[in-house]
Amino acid sequence: MPAPRTTAAVPPPAPPRAPVPPVPPAAPAARRPRRRTPFRSRLGPYLLLVPAVAAIAVGLGYPLARQFVISFQEYGLAQQFGRPAEWVGLQNYVTLLTDPYVWTVIARSIAFCLLNAGLTMAIGIALAVLMTKVGRAARVTLQVGMLLAWGTPVLATMTVWQWLFDSQYGVVNWLLAEPLGMGSMRFHSWLIEPLSFYGVATVIVVWMSVPFVAFTVYAGLLQVPEECMEAAQLDGANAWQRLWSLAIPMVKPVLFVVALLQVIWDLRVFTQIHVLQRAGAPTRETHLLGTYIYSLAKEFSMAGAMATIMLVITLGLTVFYIRRMLREEQL
């Protein structure tokens, strides 16, 4: 007989689940009210600037305002002792700007300024690059030498340079006459002719200005990432290409600021020119803006007008450089 068929037990069906009620959307979080900065906190940084601004206004603003007012008056030695100053308007400016000699001094000063600033920048950048390449001993020696040249007082430096270029006992004349065989230079006077006068003045001004440029540019070159220089070297760029195409563009803001300061300083140069003039140079043929304003010292109104013209020229060069620097940063 066949075996009886067994039937597997079937589990009872599960009871139906109760429907899940939909979850209501979460209410948007309440926006926290923006906390307003107290007025006192916003005013704090400006209050910290008040002492510096006040000192600049008293030490610089008042003399500039006084100079500007005097330039529109007839003001001389008599007014120093109580005589009232007469208001002449633009007469002082007309007198100066219609004088061909004034334009000669202005052109001479701008040419001297641009030449000295260019030489100073070129030599300073070269020394900054040199300091990044040499060893520690040579770098420290170079830095100490530049610090001594930069830190020596101007009059002490001028005394040494006058001795070097002295017509009778100067070392420069002896070197040119004896070792180099230029006998005509034995008793040559460097200060009589305007061209050689400005050559000596250029040497002195550049000598005293190069350390500032060299140290500033050297500090900027130290911030150039080594990884970029190594990557450029691996790509086949030589030392000149790495410097000109990579390092110089990275420190371009530093170069613009230093060049602007050099232009301002070289345009206002006074001490070096005045000391060389007193050593025997013809003053009228060697005047720059600073020494020419000093020569007008007895006529305060004319000196004030000439100083204002010099200030306008300086501001014009400054605006030109600042606009160019901002344009470079936007590229």
From TrEMBL:
<keyword id="KW-0812">Transmembrane</keyword>
<feature type="transmembrane region" description="Helical">
    <location>
        <begin position="142"/>
        <end position="164"/>
    </location>
</feature>
<feature type="region of interest" description="Disordered">
    <location>
        <begin position="1"/>
        <end position="35"/>
    </location>
</feature>
<dbReference type="GO" id="GO:0005886">
    <property type="term" value="C:plasma membrane"/>
</dbReference>
<feature type="compositionally biased region" description="Pro residues">
    <location>
        <begin position="10"/>
        <end position="27"/>
    </location>
</feature>
<dbReference type="Pfam" id="PF00528">
    <property type="entry name" value="BPD_transp_1"/>
</dbReference>
<keyword id="KW-1133">Transmembrane helix</keyword>
<feature type="transmembrane region" description="Helical">
    <location>
        <begin position="105"/>
        <end position="130"/>
    </location>
</feature>
<feature type="transmembrane region" description="Helical">
    <location>
        <begin position="300"/>
        <end position="322"/>
    </location>
</feature>
<comment type="similarity">
    <text>Belongs to the binding-protein-dependent transport system permease family.</text>
</comment>
<feature type="domain" description="ABC transmembrane type-1">
    <location>
        <begin position="106"/>
        <end position="321"/>
    </location>
</feature>
<keyword id="KW-1003">Cell membrane</keyword>
<dbReference type="InterPro" id="IPR035906">
    <property type="entry name" value="MetI-like_sf"/>
</dbReference>
<dbReference type="GO" id="GO:0055085">
    <property type="term" value="P:transmembrane transport"/>
</dbReference>
<keyword id="KW-0813">Transport</keyword>
<dbReference type="InterPro" id="IPR050809">
    <property type="entry name" value="UgpAE/MalFG_permease"/>
</dbReference>
<protein>
    <submittedName>
        <fullName>Carbohydrate ABC transporter membrane protein 1, CUT1 family</fullName>
    </submittedName>
</protein>
<keyword id="KW-0472">Membrane</keyword>
<dbReference type="InterPro" id="IPR000515">
    <property type="entry name" value="MetI-like"/>
</dbReference>
<feature type="transmembrane region" description="Helical">
    <location>
        <begin position="43"/>
        <end position="65"/>
    </location>
</feature>
<feature type="transmembrane region" description="Helical">
    <location>
        <begin position="243"/>
        <end position="265"/>
    </location>
</feature>
<feature type="transmembrane region" description="Helical">
    <location>
        <begin position="195"/>
        <end position="222"/>
    </location>
</feature>
